[in-house]
Inverse folding.
């Protein structure tokens, strides 16, 4: 079988597998979201509440979800495919392409669900006000630990829903996935203290990305403030390529544990 067809099939397989997980993730999140809207209205009669819209929630929780499945697939899927005759190079390209497809689909599905729920709320005249993404900024006076946590939890965002917002959402999802992939691959190959160093590296990359998007970072990280612009998106994409390069170096000759 030709390399191209192997990688294409692998990309489809991984997209399908992770897509099934994503259906569960979005489905559970949607049920919780509806319950969060309806429960106070039905049982307490509370009205006039302000609730995050579904797109905003997907934006925040979707990134953490991609980080987690990046770790899971790097530990479980690569060994499985290599043991079944797939080369590490083919897996690398197949996983990259398949996950990029997933990162493109998730914002579109979240946007569709957002408009459907918004339409239902408007149609039923529920006393609910939907709010979009919060404009969260890390303050310079925040302690280093707080800056680190916020850099991981709150990805760069565009407050108003637009084509730019969807693009940034997609880039963020893929960025978080490759970070998780790098962490999982590092732990699988090295384990122990060396594996922990990949978490430290991941935190440093999160901080760099945060600085690129205009958030204050420690003085020892001389990162240019590119703010919310096309240049900031390019900065994150460059970080993605760097992380992919690290993943390739780690997994190229990685011994598969039986």
């Amino acid at each position: 079988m030709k390399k191209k067809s192997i990688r294409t099939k692998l990309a489809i397989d991984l997209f399908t597998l992770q897509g099934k997980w994503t259906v569960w993730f979005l489905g559970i999140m949607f049920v919780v979201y509806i319950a969060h809207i309806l429960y106070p209205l039905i049982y307490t009669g509370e009205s006039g509440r302000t609730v995050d819209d579904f797109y905003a929630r997907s934006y925040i929780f979707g990134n953490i979800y991609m980080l987690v499945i990046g770790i899971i697939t790097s530990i479980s899927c690569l060994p499985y495919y290599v043991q079944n005759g797939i080369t590490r190079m083919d897996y690398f390209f197949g996983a990259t392409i398949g996950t990029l497809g997933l990162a493109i689909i998730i914002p579109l599905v979240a946007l569709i669900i957002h408009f459907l729920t918004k339409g239902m709320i408007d149609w039923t005249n529920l006393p609910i006000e939907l709010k979009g993404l919060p404009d969260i900024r890390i303050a310079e006076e925040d302690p280093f630990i707080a800056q680190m946590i916020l850099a991981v939890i709150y990805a760069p965002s565009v407050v108003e829903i637009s084509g730019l917002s969807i693009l940034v959402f997609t880039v963020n999802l893929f960025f978080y996935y490759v970070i998780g992939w790098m962490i999982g691959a590092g732990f699988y190959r090295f384990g122990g203290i060396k594996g922990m160093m990949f978490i430290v590296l991941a935190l440093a990359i999160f901080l760099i990305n945060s600085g690129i998007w205009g958030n204050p970072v420690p003085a020892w990280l001389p990162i240019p403030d590119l703010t919310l612009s096309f240049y900031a998106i390019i900065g994150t994409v460059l970080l993605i390529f760097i992380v992919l390069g690290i993943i390739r170096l780690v997994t190229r000759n990685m011994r598969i544990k039986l």
